[in-house]
Amino acid sequence: MLKKIYICLCFFFVSGILYEISLLTGCFFSCMPVPKHFLTPEQVLNLGKSIIFLETTERLEPPPLVSCSVESAARIYQDRPVILFMKGLTNDTVLDSNSSYAAFSLLSSMKNVFLFPLQMETIFQETPLLQWYNEVDPEEEKNWVHVSSDASRLALIWKYGGIYMDTDVISIRPIPEGSFLAAQKSRFSSNGIFGFPAHHKFIWDCMENFVLKYNGNIWGNQGPFLMTRMLKTICNLTDFEGIEDHSCQNISFLNPQRFYPIPYPAWGRYYDVWDKNPDFNHSYALHLWNFMNRNRKAVVAGSNTLAEKLYKTYCPTTYEDLIKNAELRDFSSYEDSV
User: How far is residue 160's CA from residue 81's CA, in Å, rounded to a whole number?
Assistant: First the structure.
């Protein structure tokens, strides 16, 4: 009995400390008095302003581009929690900075990066998405990986606020906006990156429309097309001129140059060698269009491609551990087998 009382007192004491230091801007991750693996998803999300990534497949080893996306965000937003939710993780999965999964070990070692199980039924509680989730049959959905991701990101941003990013987005400088959508082109919104405070009406309306207009057979119907049609209900969308952003109903609709300076028809340019590399001075992050990369072009050490230079600059640990050193390990293994 005394032991239980002691544990409860310790819990409340630690919780109080966490709350107090979370009020100190930029102090949380350098002052955290307990190992971060003791924190629950809700405790971290309640700190606010999280950067959220999702992995809705079952894989446990994030590929280099996912690792680069998370690492770059962790470096750009050092005073904010960066969370990768992974469907393949469970509460019983024991993986940490000593994991045999190289990327998992790398990301776990970063002070402001958290890797948590993606538990959709919990996420959808108290949202319009719960009934849809209970009724839908994932086995009958041809786009389930994408559709479930579209739903999860809406629910998480609605409940906790922050910024959602796809796992092929490399952060290069902080986004100064609080409530924003990213234009993929004029009059068309992406859902690959967006940010809102908790309980924003626009996100709630998106969840309601997600259910009302649900059609999982049409790729993007629950994602960019959803964001675009909901934005059109409250804003008169016009073409962008130059690099200006648009604003309506206190929502910033950010210029395509902010995240999509290389449009999707030219996605392969990221894997080309450029005579003169672009400076991306008007961008906050870069979307590498991994969905288009069906031939699985990859970053190769020494290739001098634009993507390799981005890795070296914005996710150097991923580059060293998962690109450069991985190739050395593969070469050593080949020599040993000869």
Answer: 12
User: Model pTM?
Assistant: 0.88
Q: What is the pLDDT of residues 40-77, one digit of tens each?
A: 999 999 988 999 999 999 998 899 999 999 999 999 99
Beta bridge partners of 164: 52, 194
CA distances to 57, 72, 189, 268, 293 from 65, rounded to whole Å, are 15, 10, 23, 15, 12
Structure tokens at 84: 């990768």
Strand order in 113-117's β-sheet? 113-117, 82-86, 51-55, 162-165, 188-196, 180-185, 251-254, 246-248
Burial grade of 293 (CB within 10 A; 0-12, 13-18, 19 or more): middle
pLDDT tens digit sequence for 161-198: 999 999 999 999 999 999 999 999 999 999 999 999 99
DSSP 40-105: -HHHHHTTS--EEEEE-SS-SS--HHHHHHHHHHHHH-TTS-EEEEETT--TT----TT-SSHHHH
The Cα–Cα gap between 107 and 317 comes to 9
User: For residue 333, what pLDDT band results from cuts at 50, 70 and 90?
Assistant: very low
* E runs forming strands in 140-240: 162-165, 169-171, 180-185, 188-196
Mention every residue, 6+ apart, whose C-beta is less than 8 A from residue 152.
Answer: 54, 56, 85, 118, 120, 123
SS3 call for 117: strand
CA angle 312, 313, 315 (to 5 degrees): 70
Query: Contact 149/164 with Cβ under 8 angstroms?
Result: no
Residue carrying the six token digits 């593969």: 330
What whole-number distance in Å separates Cα of residue 16 and Cα of residue 213? 44
Residues 213, 156: Cα–Cα separation, whole Å: 20
Burial label for 275, CB within 10 Å (0-12, 13-18, 19+), is exposed
Q: How far, rounded to the nearest angstrom, does the alpha carbon of residue 311 sit from its chain's CA centroid?
A: 17
Secondary structure (DSSP) of 257-304 = GGT-SS-GGGGGGGGSPPSS----TT-SEEE--GGG-TT-----TT--
Residue type for position 95: L
